[in-house]
Amino acid sequence: MKFLFRIKLEMSRYRKHLRHNVSRGNAWQRTCGPIQPTMNPKYDELSTFHRNCLAGRNGSAHKDSSGTRLCSSQSFRNSLSTLHSFLSYHGKTTDARIGRELLSQFGEHLKSYIDSLGVTAHTKADRRSHLRSWRKSANEMLHAHAASDGASDRDTSGASAFHQLLRQAIAAAHEKPKTLARRCGASTSAIQRWLKGAFPNVRARPSLHRLEGALGLPPDSLSTLAYERTAGCPDAIIHGGCSPIAYRERLRVNTKNRYLLALQQLNVSFLAEWGAFFEYKTTRCPGLKRSSRGVWRLLPSSQIGGKLPALAYLHGRGAASAAIALGDLRTFFGYLTLPVERGGRGIPLNDAQSLAWLASPVTVNGFLEFRTARSNGLIHNGQQRFAQLVASLTHPRTGYLTQLPHFSQCLPEAIAGKDWQALCRKTHELCHEWTRAAINTSRAPQEPIQGLLALSEPLAPIFRAIDALDMK
C-alpha cells in the first residue's frame, strides 16, 4: 500500500504547482517569481533518448526506415534490463519521472544498488557502466530540453535557458533551495536571486560548479548557460570581478626585477669575513663579546628540515640561522650593486661585498626603504628580520661590527672618516625604529581561501571533494 502511494505521489507531485493553483503568498512563488511549471520527463521518454544516444556513440549502428540511427538491439536490451532492476530496487517503474536517484544523488543510490547485488564482480562492473550511461543520457536530455526551451521561456515568463535548467534541476532534487545551498557550500541568497531571474557574476563560478555536482548535472552545464551572454566581451570585463591576491601580484612584478646576489658571485674577501663571523656566532669561546642570545646552534643534517647552502655548515653540522642571515646579506649586497635607475646604489660588485656596509645608516635605511617600496608600502617581517640582524651587529657593547673598527677601511672615505662607534650607534638606533614600525603582514594567508572562509561551513567543499574521489 505504501509502495503504491509513493508511486502515485511521485507521478502527481508536480501537478500540484500549476500557476493557477499557486497563491500570491506561496513561498515558492516568492522565491522564484511567476514561472511556468517544469517537470522532468519520464523514464519511458529517457529510454527512447538513450537508444538514440547509444546509436550516436556506436559507429556500427544502423538506420531504420526513417533514417534514425539505431544501436545494437542486444546492447540496448542489456542496458534497459539494468535500468529496470535499478528502478525496481528503488521502488520505481519506467512510468515514474526521472528523479534524484539518477541525478543529484546518483552516486549514493548507485553504490547502494551495486552493493545489494549477489552477482559476480564482472556483472557488477557491467551494470555500473550501464547506469552511468543512463545518467549521462538523462543529463544530456535535460540539458537539451532546457536549451531548446530557453527562447520560448524568455518570451512568456522571462526565464532564460540557465534559469530553466536550474529550476528544473532543483525541482528534481526534492530539496529546498536553502538546504541545497548549504549542502553544496553556496550562498543561499545567491541561489534565491538566480531563481528569481538574476544571473551569477564571474566570482560565483566555483559555486556554480559545486551546484552542478550537487544537482547531478554535467560539468559546466549551468556555467556555460550563465556566462554565454558575455561572449564577445573583452577578457578584462569578463574576469574583472575576480579579486586578485595582492601578494601574488607583487611577486609577479618583483620577480621581473630580481636583485639577489648568487652564491657564485660572492668573492674571496667576503667569504673570509663570513668565515670569521660564522665562527664568532657558533664557537663556545668567542674572542669578542657576544650576547647570550647571539649564538647560532649547529645541528646534524638529519635534524635540519630543509637543505642549507654549504656556507651554513661547519664540520658537517649546519645552522639554519646562518642560512637566513646569509640570504639577507645576499639581498643587501644585490641592492648595493643594483643600478641607481633601478633603485639601487650602483656600487661595483667587489666593493659592495663587505659587512662594513651594515654600519652605514644611510645605506641600511636606503635598503629598507627599497624593500618597503617593493612591498607597496608594507613594513613586514622581512624588514624586521634584517633590521634585527643589523641591530645585533651594531650593538654598543656586544655588536660584532662595533668591536671591529678596522671594518671602516672597507668603506668609501666619506664614510670611513667618521667616528666608527658613533656610526654603529646611529645605525643601531635606526634599526630599532624599523623593528618597531614592522607591524604589517606581507602575505595575507586568508586571501587565497577567502571564498571558503566566507561560507557558513568552510570545510564542506573539501569533504565533498574527498567523497567524490572515494566514489571514483
List the SSEs and their pairings:
Layout: H1 2-12, H2 27-32, H3 43-57, E1 62-63, E2 69-70, H4 73-89, H5 106-116, H6 121-148, H7 150-156, H8 161-173, H9 177-184, H10 188-196, H11 205-215, H12 221-227, H13 235-238, H14 246-254, H15 268-282, E3 299-300, E4 313-314, E5 317-318, H16 320-337, H17 349-352, H18 361-374, H19 381-393, H20 413-416, H21 420-437, H22 450-453, H23 460-471
Antiparallel strand pairs: 1-2, 3-5, 4-5
In summary, what is this structure?
This protein has 472 residues and is mostly helical.
How would you portray this structure in words?
- The chain has 472 residues and is mainly alpha-helical.
- It has a 3-stranded antiparallel beta sheet with strand order 3-5-4, with no helix packed on it.
- The two termini are 37 Å apart.
- The N terminus is likely disordered.
- Return Rg in Å: 35 Å
What is the percentage of strand-forming residues?
A: under 5%
**Sheet with most strands:** 3 strands, antiparallel
Q: Roughly what percent helix?
A: 40-55%
The assigned structural class equals mainly alpha
Low-confidence stretches: 1-38, 58-71, 150-158, 230-241
* Head-to-tail CA distance between termini: 37 Å
Question: Mean pLDDT, rounded to whole units?
Answer: 79
Q: What is the overall silhouette? A: elongated
Strand line-up across the major sheet = 3-5-4
The count of helical stretches stands at 23
